[in-house]
UniProtKB/TrEMBL annotation:
<keyword id="KW-0805">Transcription regulation</keyword>
<comment type="similarity">
    <text>Belongs to the LysR transcriptional regulatory family.</text>
</comment>
<keyword id="KW-0238">DNA-binding</keyword>
<dbReference type="InterPro" id="IPR036390">
    <property type="entry name" value="WH_DNA-bd_sf"/>
</dbReference>
<dbReference type="InterPro" id="IPR036388">
    <property type="entry name" value="WH-like_DNA-bd_sf"/>
</dbReference>
<protein>
    <submittedName>
        <fullName>Transcriptional regulator, LysR family</fullName>
    </submittedName>
</protein>
<dbReference type="GO" id="GO:0003677">
    <property type="term" value="F:DNA binding"/>
</dbReference>
<dbReference type="InterPro" id="IPR000847">
    <property type="entry name" value="LysR_HTH_N"/>
</dbReference>
<dbReference type="InterPro" id="IPR005119">
    <property type="entry name" value="LysR_subst-bd"/>
</dbReference>
<feature type="domain" description="HTH lysR-type">
    <location>
        <begin position="5"/>
        <end position="62"/>
    </location>
</feature>
<dbReference type="GO" id="GO:0003700">
    <property type="term" value="F:DNA-binding transcription factor activity"/>
</dbReference>
<dbReference type="InterPro" id="IPR050176">
    <property type="entry name" value="LTTR"/>
</dbReference>
<dbReference type="Pfam" id="PF00126">
    <property type="entry name" value="HTH_1"/>
</dbReference>
<dbReference type="Pfam" id="PF03466">
    <property type="entry name" value="LysR_substrate"/>
</dbReference>
<keyword id="KW-0804">Transcription</keyword>
């Protein structure tokens, strides 16, 4: 027996079987009760069987209805899968945002969450890198917007925020003795913090040697925690497990850094101001009252 089953009628049949009510099935499918009844009648006529036993306050599947029930679900699922293969996906606008690794743990998750809430039609792609590499990417048009850090005195724009940069060592590290070369754990070049650390020590006539180089913040922190050497980090970085060496006379005082946004030339979508304000407000809410 070959039959051509109507998918909508099968959906109605399944819903009546689940709810045991024509009325509740109609409400669930946003149809009228007569429409549901008509679709069930069409199925029964096509198959030549009764699918439901009608009682006073509910309808129950007959034996023939039970035979159809599981197969009907499979048919509807298969139908919907085929439909998805050819469904036109609405293209979402994409914004590529760059962020220094130092901000990833604390502020980046909140920026991503706020963007998803306030701009659901925009897909945000995040690129994590050092400030110098992010600036290069903006100049080359590879990212739309980024936050970067640099020495405050080098900045021409008004910064979103300023922060201190400090020397850090492991919790159990000995106090630095000026009579010995300072052991440094540094990011691999190019890196502004690496350059600042070396320049600051040399300007004070302090000898140093690099004992550890890292590509990322996590491994750099691990090395410093283990007592391999000292490092230089912005105070907003993930510094748990490290101790600040601020105030130790043998180490030079470091300049303050600024955080500023940089935008790709020609990047001017209609939502530009709103996105910038959202990122700035998240940043300020996290760091404005912190001791930076």
């Amino acid at each position: 027996m070959r039959v051509n089953l109507d998918i909508q009628s099968l959906r109605s049949f399944i819903k009546v079987g689940e709810t045991k009510s024509f009325t509740r099935a109609a409400e669930a499918l946003s149809l009228t009760q007569p429409a549901i009844s008509q679709q069930i009648k069409r199925l029964e006529d096509l198959l030549g069987v009764e699918l439901f036993a009608r009682e006073k306050r509910k309808v129950l599947l007959t034996l023939e209805g039970e035979k159809l029930f599981s197969h009907a679900k499979d048919i509807v699922v298969c139908n919907d899968k085929v439909g998805c293969l050819f469904e036109k996906v609405e293209k979402r606008e994409t914004i590529i945002v760059g962020m220094p690794e130092h901000f990833c743990e604390r502020v980046l998750p909140k920026i991503i969450s706020s963007m998803a809430t306030h701009f659901p039609a925009i897909q945000m792609v995040v690129k994590v890198a050092r400030s110098g590499l992010l600036l290069d990417a903006v100049s080359e048009g590879k990212i739309d917007l980024c936050l970067v850090m640099d020495e405050l005195k080098k900045m021409h724009e008004r910064p979103w925020h300023t922060l201190s940069v400090r020397w850090f060592a492991g919790d159990r590290a000995d106090v630095i003795d000026k009579s010995y070369d300072v052991p440094l754990a540094l990011f691999k070049p190019p890196c502004g913090f690496r350059s600042l650390a070396i320049r600051s020590l040399e300007e004070c006539g302090i000898k140093w040697h690099c004992v550890y180089e890292s590509e990322d913040l996590m491994s750099l922190r691990s090395a410093v925690q283990a007592g391999v050497g000292i490092t230089l980090l912005p105070f907003v970085a993930q510094v748990s497990g490290l101790k600040s060496l601020e105030g130790i006379s043998s180490l030079p005082v470091l300049p303050r850094f600024a955080v500023v946004p940089k935008e790709r030339a020609g990047w001017n979508p209609v939502y530009r101001r709103e996105v910038l304000e959202l990122i700035r407000s998240v940043w300020i809410s996290e760091y404005a009252n912190a001791s930076l």
